[in-house]
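STRUCTURE REQUEST FORM
Protein name: Phosphoglucosamine mutase
Source organism: Sporomusa acidovorans
Requested output: structure tokens
Priority: standard
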Amino acid sequence: MENTGKGRQYHRPLAFPGRRDLHLADRQKRALLASLALTPPASIGTSKVLSVQCTDGCKLELESGWLIFRASGTEPIIRIYAELSTNTELESVLAGAIEFAQSM
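Status: completed
Returned output:
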């Protein structure tokens, strides 16, 4: 098991990073980040959400990696970053994140 000294320990190294930009109005960006902080989803895509930390955006620790929602301060955009164990999981989580964000 890999131990980086920070956060969770992973059974295998994370290898598949991804990013999506989603255009949302300021009201929608605020609603999304508030919802993630107060009532986070049980899962995103095919991955279970283990914990949520909201400081500069919201980071969700997932079973097989992590996902971050960050609002741009200068554009009507939410940036979604993720890193997961497989490309299939990455695509599923990013699609689920976009679907969740657009539901706000």
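Reviewer notes: Residues 1-5 have pLDDT under 50 and may be disordered. The first strand starts at residue 16 and ends at 23.
Form closed.
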